[in-house]
Amino acid sequence: MNCKKCKGKLEVKRACRRVRLRCTLCFKEYQIHEVASELDGDTEKLLENYTAIIYD
Ligand SMILES: [Zn+2]
What we know:
By secondary structure, the protein is α+β, with helices and mostly antiparallel strands. 21% of the residues lie in helices and 27% in strands.
């Protein structure tokens, strides 16, 4: 899963009860629903670890 702006790697970042994907290069944060249609398998697996998360 890569950033739409700079192609940097996105990492899953948990903050309180929300989860975001954040670029490790430019630090742009994406809400899950923004990238839901483009999630790759690895990222989906990571997100499955956050079952209690509210995807806002
Ligand atoms: Zn980026």
